[in-house]
Specification:
Strand content: 35-45%
Order of helices and strands: HEEEEEEEEE
CATH topology: Protocatechuate 3,4-Dioxygenase, subunit A
Shape: globular
Helix content: under 10%
Largest sheet: 5 strands, mixed
Number of strands: 9
Distance between the termini: 52 Å
C-alpha cells in the first residue's frame, strides 16, 4: 500500500493555474539566458517531464494565440546545455505543450520568457518544482501595457 501511494505522489501532476487572471509573478531571467549562445529550437527537448500550458491576458483572461514561449533549463546533468533551450508557439486557444527532462538543480526549475506580445509587457518567470512529478500545467498570464 505504501509503495503505491508513493508512486501516485511521484507521478502526480503539478499545476500552476491562473487564479482570477492575476498576472504571473516575474522571476529573474537567470544568469544562463544568453540569446547569442543558445540555439533555441522548436519542439521537445527531452523525455519524462511533460509541460502543458496557456498564455492568457490579464486584461480579460482571454487566451493569446500564436505567441512564442521560450523555455530553458539545466538538464539531468545539472548543467545548462544548448539543446535545452527551445520554444513553442501557442495554438489558437493560447495553449502550448513540450516534453523535457527533469531539471537536476536545487531547486529544480525551468525558465520561461514571453516577450513579443503586442499590447502586453514581457514576462520572464520560472516554474519551480515542489515535489517530483511527470506532468506540469502552467498558465502564463501577461500584464497589459
Amino acid at each position: 500500500m505504501k509503495a503505491s501511494l508513493l508512486l501516485a505522489l511521484l507521478s502526480a501532476s503539478a499545476s500552476v493555474l491562473a487564479e482570477d487572471c492575476q498576472p504571473t509573478p516575474s522571476r529573474t531571467i537567470g544568469t544562463h539566458y544568453d540569446i547569442s549562445k543558445a540555439t533555441f529550437q522548436p519542439g521537445d527537448i527531452g523525455e519524462g517531464l511533460l509541460f502543458t500550458g496557456r498564455v492568457l491576458s490579464a486584461k480579460d483572461c482571454k487566451p493569446l494565440p500564436n505567441v512564442r514561449v521560450l523555455h530553458w533549463q539545466a538538464g539531468e546533468s545539472g548543467r545548462y546545455e544548448n539543446h535545452l533551450y527551445a520554444w513553442r508557439n501557442t495554438d489558437e486557444n493560447g495553449a502550448f505543450r513540450f516534453e523535457t527532462e527533469w531539471p537536476a538543480l536545487n531547486p529544480p526549475h525551468v525558465h520561461f520568457l514571453v516577450d513579443e506580445v503586442p499590447g502586453h509587457t514581457p514576462l520572464a518567470t520560472q516554474w519551480i518544482a515542489r515535489e517530483p512529478t511527470t506532468e506540469v500545467h502552467i498558465d502564463l498570464v501577461l500584464k497589459p501595457e
